[in-house]
Specification:
The structure is a homodimer. The first copy, chain A, is mainly alpha-helical. Chain A is 72% helix and 0% strand. In chain A, helix 3 packs across helix 5, helix 4 runs parallel beside helix 7 and helix 7 runs antiparallel to helix 8. At the A-B interface, helix 7 and helix 8 of A face helix 7 and helix 8 of B. Chain A binds a DNA duplex through loops.
DNA sequence: CCTTTTGGCTAATATCATTAGCCTTAAGTT
DNA sequence: AACTTAAGGCTAATGATATTAGCCAAAAGG
């Protein structure tokens, strides 16, 4: 494993514990037992480059996880599995999730490229459901909106009662997918 | 209008244009034509206090807007109107929206208090629909997850094609509310 | 044995946020 | 009118952090 990758791994551990916004050159260096300037030997772009690398790692992990989750499932079950997989990733890697959802550079080319990979897994499930191109996009956005929104809100403690979060999520996924499939009844 | 309020107004204008994360003592002072230390005459707590004040303003505005949106409407229509109102707020005040959704202090007492006000408007509509207590909570969380998630993703440019965002949102709201009402058919 | 790459270090600079302490002006008070 | 106080601003100083420049040791490879 390259030193660069070692550093990214440590950063991921850190942000999952302390939050993405608390990541700094100073704390990374401390955690690694080196002095701040040494980090620039690996990331000339400084903190920005490190954060970017974390996002790339994040997108790739999510891509893999979502793709795997739908293997062997079809239609609603596949969609549902993907929703659960995404939320599960958010729980496993809250910091990484925060990074890729809300700290996207508004104009990053790289992110666009990588996002396409993730989207493609979702698209292929949607293909099997006979949606039109336009509807596929609406479905995709709706699911992303719900799952990413719900996950981020729960990770931030924005829902009062922590107890029944799993049921709330299950309820929401069911409702959304029910509504989506219902709109499709008289089509394909 | 007190000087304090004037400053908050300017900050809101700034974050709606530049994003919440770019708000700094330096830029606020520049924008006001004063020197950075002068700001501490109005906000002894520094940047943190200013950001907190912005969130309070934000919660109050949203509360009002959502409550108004549902006046004279009932059942699905009321729910739908609230979803649209929340997204509309996000478009009108992207920076404020960002602040209150994703930069909540995890443990702020104040926020909890204020959030309750907002939630109460939503709850009263849900009451009219005959949901059980538990289901009301699930519905509320699902709607918040979807609307806040969708809005934040679109504001960040995370959905490729900007053109059809309105339709995608309408599609998602319909699907979700359809699913919610369907689960309710054989109840009350 | 020489050379290059890797990974680290110290010292110096720039940018902010924040604190301390001073000053002016306008509003009240006696 | 003279005094006092509060508002709102300023300069100078401190402290944290990111970043740059330039030096150094040790390992890898010829």
């Amino acid at each position: 494993m390259t030193r660069k990758q070692e550093i990214i791994d440590v950063c991921i551990e850190m942000i999952d514990k302390e939050g993405f916004l608390n990541l700094s050159i100073k704390t990374i260096a401390e955690r690694l037992g080196i002095k701040p300037p040494s980090l620039y030997k690996h990331f000339q772009g400084g903190l920005d480059e490190i954060k970017e690398a974390i996002k790339v790692y994040g997108w790739n992990s999510i891509d893999i996880k979502i793709a795997k989750s739908a293997v062997g499932k079809s239609r609603e079950d596949g969609l549902k599995a993907m929703c659960y997989a995404l939320r599960e990733f958010a729980h496993e890697h809250p910091g990484v999730f925060e990074a890729i959802c809300w700290h996207n550079s508004y104009t990053s080319e790289l992110n666009h490229e990588i996002t396409k990979g993730v989207i493609s897994s979702l698209y292929s499930i949607l293909d099997s459901l006979g949606f039109s191109e336009a509807v596929k996009m609406h479905v995709l956005r709706s699911l992303r909106g719900f799952v990413e929104g719900f996950s981020m809100l729960e990770l931030h403690g924005s829902f009062g009662d922590e107890i029944t979060l799993d049921e709330s999520f299950a309820y929401g996924v069911d409702a959304l997918i029910t509504g989506i499939m219902k709109g499709q009844e008289n089509v394909g």
